[in-house]
Structures are given as structure tokens and as C-alpha cells.
Amino acid sequence: MVNAPVPAVTTTIATTDLEAILRRLTRLEDEKEIEKLMAHRAYLHSAGRHDVEHQEMWSKREDIIFEPEDWGGWTGHAAMEQNYVKANPFPPSTKGLMIEHTVTTGIIEIADDRQTAKGVWISPGHETFPMGDGLPKPHWSWGRYGVDFVREDGQWKIWHLHVLTTFRTPFDKSWVETAISRPDYLPEEGTAMPGMLPPDRAVSFNQPYHPDKNPKYQPVPPEPYKSWKDTFSCVDPYTHPREVSQPV
């Protein structure tokens, strides 16, 4: 018995459906590119190559902003070059240096116009810093990132970067103990490194763990938005409605 030929099935995709699929694919590609950008930055930071990070991963706009933890923010490339590159106290030639800040729990939102994007990450990490003539000091160092991105020449670049402290503690002490009694060799909160210029922006938000403080919804995870005028920057103070105020 000879089987009858099976008629070909023709599937027609409406133009509007195809456009929606292409938009979803583009959004996924954008998110993946941003994930790779942040991961690559983590590797450069571990190697002490702040110079390469600044040159290759940051926007060429003059209104870039870097806000590290409790120091305040620096605006523009000249301030970035002086404070993040030249005044880096632990350049790549530093013996005994070890820094690893991973990027996890990411939430990324691409603007509908694809000109900007926003992301937040939690960053478990550890640091080992040389301390004069003694042995290097190892620490657990956890934080969070809030980042604004801008699209330039078809590529995503860092526009604003906010690093928030969760805790930093010697590897053999709990973060509770360190929050109550800060080790003498750690600089006071808000004290920048030698050679760094005073920040031109106040701290927008930074709250390391302390047993007398309640947790905060920071950095605020991004929500869908159409264009930059419809949202806020990671380096601007913002209190989300989900935020719980500090109990009296």
C-alpha cells in the first residue's frame, strides 16, 4: 500500500507578531550584553585595571557619575581618571592583592526607546589588601550595585555606577561585631583614600549593616519605563513606596 503524500503546512506570521518577536529578541540581546559588561568589569576590577575599565566600559559622555559606598560621587572623566585610576591605592602591580566582587541576582530593565537601561545586582565578595610592612589583611566584603547604562554607537556603556556597602569585616570576625567595633586599620566611613579629590556630590544612599538599623529596599530594582525622563538615576536619592522607615 502506498502512503498518500502529506500536504505541506504553510504557517503565516502576521507582521505585527513578527515585530513583537524581534523586539523581544532585541531586549534579550541587550540584557545579555549588559550582563557581560558587568561581568567583564568584575574581572578587570579583580586585576586592578581601573584604567581599562574607564577607557572601554564607561560612556564618553561628560556627565558620567561614580559613587563608591560612603565617599560621595564624582562627576566627569577628569574626576574619574584622578580618583578611580591615578589614585587607586592598589594598582595591578600590588603584591598580595586579591579582590573578587561577583555579580548576582541581577534585575535589568531596557527603556522602550533603547537609549538607556538600568540594573541592580547583589555582590558577594572578598578582599585582601597589603597593609604596610605587615601581612595583608583579608576581609569579607559584600555590597550591591545600582547602575545606569546608555547606548553609544550600538553598544551599552556604564553611565552612572553606585556601589553600596552591605558589610565589610575581617575574615575571622562577624559583621555584627565589626559594625559595633570597627577595626582601627579600616578608614573611617566617608574617608577617601590619599590622592583623591573631594567628591562633588553627596552620598545618595549607603547603609552598611548595623544591629540598630532596619534593612532597606536599596538599590531600588528597576521597573519598566519608556525613556529616561520617565525614571530616576541610581545616584539620586529615591525612596520607593515599598521602603519601611526606621522604627523610632
List keywords for this structure.
alpha+beta, 25% strand, globular
How far is the first residue's CA from the last residue's CA? 87 Å
Per DSSP E runs of 2 or more residues, the count of β-strands stands at 8
Radius of gyration: 22 Å
Calculate the mean pLDDT score and round it. Answer: 91
Structural category is alpha+beta
Number of helical segments? 4
Write down the overall geometry. globular
Q: Approximately what portion of the residues adopt beta-strand conformation?
A: 25-35%
**Residues in helices, as a percent range:** 10-25%
Low-confidence stretches: none
The profile of the biggest β sheet is: 8 strands, mixed
Q: What's the order of the H and E elements?
A: HHEEHEEEEEEH
